[in-house]
Amino acid sequence: MGLSGRVGADYNYRTPGVSSEFSTYNVQLFTRFGLVPALRFQSEKRLFFDVELPLDFIEMYYSWNKTDNPSIPLRQQRTQVMGMEIIRPPLHLRLGMGVKL
Question: Are the C-beta atoms of 39 and 50 separated by less than 8 Å?
């Protein structure tokens, strides 16, 4: 059993396709924490196989959005959101093989 932590970032810029839309920016920073149960199988002396099932359960994020719309005030063109969620992750299974040196 182990603990996992992942950090990520995402940046989007959308250029409008028609004249009635406005360009938008989106920046997201996030981190996820979880548990990783693992099984390791030893084969011969130097070769091993492992199976891991990572389970993320908490996600913390910060999101910053900006819309270039001149018809609304500047204060409303920018939004920032910070939050934390308890998530139900999809199941992923990791199979690995290694050689001890």
Answer: yes
Taking Cα atoms as reference points, which of 49, 55, 50, 47 lies closest to residue 38? 50
Q: Which of 44, 55, 61 is nearest to 90 (CA)?
A: 55
Rounded CA Rg of the chain: 21
Q: In this model, does residue 44 exceed pLDDT 90?
A: no
pLDDT digits (tens, 9 = 90+) for 54-78: 888 899 999 999 998 888 898 889 9
Contact 52, 37 (CB under 8 A): yes
**DSSP H/E element including 25:** strand 24-36
3-state secondary structure 54-95: CEEEEEEEEEEEEECCCCCCHHHHEEEEEEEEECCCCCCCEE
Residue 100 has pLDDT above 90, yes or no: no
Q: Is residue 44 left, alpha or beta, with left meaning phi > 0 and alpha meaning psi from -120 to 50?
A: left
